[in-house]
From TrEMBL:
Residues 1-78 form the Transposase DDE domain. This is IS5/IS1182 family transposase. The lineage of its organism: Bacteria, Pseudomonadati, Pseudomonadota, Gammaproteobacteria, Vibrionales. Pfam families: DDE_Tnp_1_5 (PF13737). It comes from the Bacteria.
């Protein structure tokens, strides 16, 4: 899911977005090499084009949560392109 429904168990306000939402945003950021502010607008544009009623996490939320969320993806190689979709 995109929005977090459970509290993190510590003091303070709970998270608005799940770890999966932050991880997805960070993967998109890594693939397209976007700065955080551009990433936020890019995700909002994608959701708008898909007519999905979701809002992307703010750039500050992504920045803060990036320290605690582990992202596993391979960076593209620097060699020639082998596959085109």
């Amino acid at each position: 899911t995109w929005h977090c429904k459970e509290h993190h168990g510590k003091r303070g306000r709970g998270f608005t977005f799940t770890d999966g939402a932050i991880e997805t945003a960070l993967i998109v950021k890594g693939i397209f090499k976007l700065p955080l502010r551009a990433l936020q607008d890019f995700l909002d544009s994608i959701f708008g084009l898909m007519d999905v009623p979701l809002k992307s996490p703010s750039y500050s939320c992504i920045s803060k949560r990036a320290k605690t969320v582990e992202v596993n993806y391979r960076l593209p190689s620097r060699g020639p392109v082998a596959h085109v979709v």
